[in-house]
Amino acid sequence: MRYTPIFSFFVLIALISCKNTAGPITKESTDAPSGYQGQGKNPIVPTVNKPVQKQWKGVWSFDNDTTYFTNDFDGARLNGVAADGNDHYTIWITAENTPINVSPWYAFKVWTKNPREITIKLSYQDSRSRYYPKISTDGINFKPLDSTDFKAINPGEGDFGIKAVPEFVELKVRIDQEPTWITAQELYSSKRVKSWIDSLATKPFVTSYEIGRTSEKRPLHLMEISKDSTAKKALMIISRQHPPEVTGFIAMKSFIETIAGESAQAKKFRKSHSIFVVPLMNPDGVDNGHWRHNMGGVDLNRDWENFNQPETKSVRNFLNNKSSEGYEFVFGADFHSTWDDIYYPLDTIATGSKGKIVFDWIENISKRLPQKKSNVKPSGQLEPTMVSRTYFFVEHKMPSIVFELGDDTPRDFLKLKGRVAAEELMRLLDID
Ligand SMILES: [Zn+2]
């Protein structure tokens, strides 16, 4: 199925004008601290289902059927394209619904029968250009666009966050018959995450199973790392409630690979601890290329109080079952991404001595990684639970944290930080 440029233009205008009536984009504190002035109270957000705009999927064809753009793959987001002449194209990126956090995810492929350099302008619905473009020729290996091919248009006037980034960007891309992927971050669709789970599950002490299904019937996979089912001290690790937060996922992946690794420390740790992991909390949002929400149109990390959504309900039921089987949760972490690396623990004013281990752990990680400072912003708010970290502590007495990695943190450092975080946690938990 193909769009003509004229048709897509009108559909796009209709789509944008109808979306604008839904309300303004708003910023929420957990993922968008404004200048790190501290973690404010999370506003209470309703989590009952809201309508979601599914994107039209297909191929846009231009220049007498010689140049093509597509969003027809998992994780794609491309809501409209126009050919402006002179090998210049404008791309529209819109959100699944509003109000929504400003994390304008995009991902599309482009190719041509007439190899040449083209210019692509990215424009966003009520947002600015948060994510620096990544390029790939195989959909697996991505690198940042060369800075000489990148142009900021209307640069931001602020010094942090969305106010500091350009309104639009233009990219120069050399295209040929083979597709070029252009994406906001590396692509980790639900299939790619599942193949990572499967690769770890070849180890005798790693199993994986479904703990529920999303509204589009995608499985929620849980990975269990346990040498011995009598090891009742347990960790709960989750990631990617928010689809674009790939850097948090990359750190989580390294964290888990370290705990499931072959070091003497990891082997010893697994004798006394069981590790439960949901690496992809929002597969519908990820595969649909959402900016933040699930298919219920809801921010999952506001639903750990009312549990209106299948994804949060599945983890709640899993944790309740494990607690009733006698597991004692000794640590919980939820990996996210934001403008820069930051830790959001619960304040020991609220958690008492139970929560102190989280601060010892942060201190030990920071000592080993002096090359990049991470801010620490504790929250003292235990009610309503609403976010996973708070629910983990209030209902299951887990010392817990929101572990945030920067959108632009170097990928090698993300992997190192995930590994160091795992090593320091195993060291602290294995002391007794
Ligand atoms: Zn997040």
From TrEMBL:
Q: Which cofactor does it need?
A: Zn(2+)
Q: What GO biological process terms are annotated to this protein in UniProt?
A: proteolysis
InterPro entries recorded = Cytosolic_carboxypeptidase, Peptidase_M14
Segments crossing the lipid bilayer: none
Q: Where is the active site?
A: E404
Keyword annotations: Carboxypeptidase, Hydrolase, Protease, Signal
Q: Which residues form the Peptidase M14 domain?
A: 186-429
Family the UniProt entry places it in: Belongs to the peptidase M14 family.
- What is this protein identified as? Cytosolic carboxypeptidase
Species of origin: Flagellimonas maritima
Q: What is the lineage of its organism?
A: Bacteria, Pseudomonadati, Bacteroidota, Flavobacteriia, Flavobacteriales
